[in-house]
Structures are given as structure tokens and as C-alpha cells.
């Protein structure tokens, strides 16, 4: 770095403001809304075209909100590289370009509505070691979105 | 309670570097954001003010006044600037989205005289944003 632009080595203390970092991720997956113990008519009545036996897909947008103190040495709540790697391993590697009902064990007996996907994603991301998970948001389409902050 | 949000945009450059770290540590921790020449973003700032509408005017606060506050306090300071070197409030800090949002909160909070500042939301990109909610909540 140029000497005419020195960065002081002892940053001022930042006020203790509450800050939440949001990072958005994208995955595409198919699902089917269907309860095994219901009749075909019941499934069709409750879930409509989402009960189509062959499934259908969405471009999901996942918003992960984490909070915690901002580290003065880095200016960060958490290093994005760590968060990205964790979400990639815990969610995207398993959820992207799959049929959720058949390929994600958590949805074998738990209908993969976006509500249930939110809860499953929250359960998986909660152990993130570098910040506190505050909220999960999922857009199923640009017109339908869901938020979950734990029970 | 009503919540009113005003959106503005500014473009600025920055870099992440902590002189207490070795060059290797800086590169490891900050990655490409450590590029000494800096890089830039089109920031999108959403400022939300909470309050009850004045019975005479029907307004929580005068949007013209909020627009002027944002122009004077934020855009005049940060738009088309190199944040590390040209914004005194960020001198010596790592100008992450967390730091910039907190700084914007600190600049705006005392200027909002009708209603109260509820949230500062700053987008660095459409997929990365930070909410600053003050000391409460």
C-alpha cells in the first residue's frame, strides 16, 4: 500500500450497534407436495397442481441472516468465505439440482413445502460456529417467500 | 407505528487491509478484497424511519428533509469516493458492509428529528447486505 494513504493500526472502537449480515444463495430443485397416507383425491384437493406425481421445480433463493459482534480487526461479523463454505457443504451440495423428496433424506417423510425447507435449513445452519444464526428466508418464486427464525 | 423507507444509491471503492497483519495474513483473511488498488461497488442504501404520522400533515417525516439529510450526510461523503482514504469516519477502520452500515447509522441517527431511525440496510451487491438496527431490538 502507498505510504501517502496510511491506515492507522489502532482502529477506533465501534459503537455496540446491532448488525445482521445477510447473504443470499441460489439453488434449483424439484419437489412434490404429497402425503403418502392420504388418498390421491385428498392430495389433489390440498396441494392442487403441486401434487403432480412427477414433481416440478423452482429456482429457490436462500437468505441467511447471521449476527454477532463486529470484529474490529477485520470489520466483520464473520468471514464470508467461512459462511459460503458452510452453506455450500450443509445445504447447496445436497439441495441444488436434486429431487428433494427422493434425494434429501429429511424430506422422505416430511413434505418439502417451503415452510419445511426453511425449518430444515435452519436446523442445519444453526451450528455455524463463527456467528449466531438469526433468520432464514427462502423465496420459492419471486412472488412467494418465507422466513423462519427458530421456534 | 408506521415505517417509511427511502432508498438511495452510491458508488464507491474500498479495500480491506489491516496493517497489524502480515501481507500473507491480509491476503488469507481478506482474499481479493485485499487488492491494494481497491475495487468498487454500487451500494444501495435503504433507510427506514419509524413513527406516527403527524395529524396535520399525514406524514411521519417530510421526505424532502430525509432526502436532504441523505444527500448531505451520506452521498456527499461517500458517493464516488475511495472509502478508506476519503471518508474521515471510516479512517482506520476496515470498510466492510458491516462497518459502513454502522457508520451510516451513527451519522443519520442524530439527524432524524421526526420519527426515529429504525433500520439502515446497505446492499454491497444484491446477494450481500447488512442491517444495522441501532442499540435496541
Description:
The complex is a heterodimer of chains A (151) and B (137). Chain A is of the alpha+beta class. Chain A contains four helices and four strands. Chain A has helices spanning 40-47, 80-95, 100-103, 114-125; strands at 19-31, 56-67, 132-141, 144-148. A four-stranded antiparallel β-sheet of chain A has the order 1-2-3-4, with helices on one face. Chain A is elongated. The model of chain A is unreliable at 1-14 (pLDDT under 50). Chain B has four helices and five strands. In chain B, strands 3-1-2-4-5 form a five-stranded mixed β-sheet. The chains are: A alpha+beta (151), B alpha+beta (137). The interface between A and B is medium-sized, with 33 and 37 residues.
Give descriptors for this structure.
heterodimer; A: 151 residues; alpha+beta; 4 strands; B: 137 residues; 5-stranded mixed sheet; 5 strands; 29% helix
What is the helix fraction of residues of chain B, given as a range? 25-40%
Through-space gap between termini of chain B: 15 Å
Q: In this structure, how is the largest beta sheet of chain A organized?
A: 4 strands, antiparallel
Biggest interface pair, residues each?
A: A-B, 33 and 37 residues
Largest sheet: spatial strand order of chain A? 1-2-3-4
Estimated radius of gyration of chain B = 17 Å
Query: What gyration radius of chain A follows from the Cα positions, in whole Å?
Result: 20 Å
Multimerization state: heterodimer
Low-pLDDT segments, ≥5 res of chain A: 1-14
Shape of chain A: elongated
Distance between the termini of chain A: 48 Å
Number of strands of chain B: 5
Number of strands of chain A: 4
Strand order of the largest sheet of chain B: 3-1-2-4-5
Percentage of residues in strands of chain B: 25-35%
Mean pLDDT of chain A equals 91
Strand content of chain A: 25-35%
Annotation field: number of helices of chain B: 4
State the helical fraction of chain A: 25-40%
Amino acid at each position: 500500500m502507498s505510504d501517502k494513504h496510511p491506515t492507522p493500526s489502532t482502529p477506533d472502537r465501534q459503537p455496540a450497534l446491532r448488525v445482521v449480515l445477510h447473504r443470499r444463495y441460489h439453488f434449483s430443485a424439484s419437489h412434490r407436495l404429497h402425503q403418502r397416507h392420504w388418498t390421491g383425491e385428498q392430495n389433489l384437493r390440498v396441494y392442487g397442481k403441486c401434487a403432480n406425481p412427477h414433481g416440478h421445480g423452482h429456482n429457490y433463493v436462500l437468505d441467511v441472516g447471521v449476527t454477532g459482534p463486529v470484529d474490529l480487526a477485520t470489520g466483520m461479523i464473520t468471514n464470508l468465505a467461512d459462511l459460503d463454505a458452510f452453506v455450500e457443504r450443509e445445504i447447496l451440495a445436497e439441495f441444488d439440482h436434486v429431487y428433494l423428496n427422493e434425494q434429501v433424506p429429511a424430506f422422505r417423510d416430511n413434505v418439502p413445502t417451503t415452510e419445511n425447507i426453511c425449518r430444515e435449513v435452519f436446523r442445519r445452519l444453526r451450528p455455524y460456529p463463527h456467528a449466531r444464526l438469526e433468520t432464514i428466508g427462502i423465496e420459492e418464486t419471486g412472488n412467494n417467500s418465507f422466513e423462519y427464525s427458530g421456534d | 407505528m408506521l415505517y417509511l423507507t427511502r432508498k438511495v444509491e452510491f458508488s464507491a471503492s474500498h479495500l480491506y487491509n489491516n496493517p497489524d497483519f502480515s501481507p500473507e495474513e491480509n491476503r488469507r483473511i481478506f482474499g481479493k478484497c485485499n487488492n491494494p488498488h481497491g475495487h468498487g461497488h454500487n451500494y444501495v442504501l435503504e433507510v427506514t424511519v419509524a413513527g406516527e404520522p403527524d395529524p396535520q400533515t399525514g406524514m411521519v417525516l417530510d421526505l424532502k428533509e430525509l432526502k436532504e439529510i441523505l444527500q448531505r450526510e451520506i452521498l456527499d461523503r461517500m458517493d464516488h469516493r475511495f472509502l478508506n482514504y476519503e471518508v474521515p469516519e471510516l479512517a482506520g477502520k476496515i470498510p466492510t458492509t458491516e462497518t459502513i452500515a454502522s457508520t451510516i447509522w451513527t451519522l443519520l441517527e442524530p439527524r432524524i428529528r421526526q420519527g426515529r431511525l429504525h433500520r439502515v440496510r446497505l446492499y454491497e451487491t444484491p446477494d450481500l447486505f447488512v442491517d444495522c438496527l441501532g442499540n435496541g431490538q
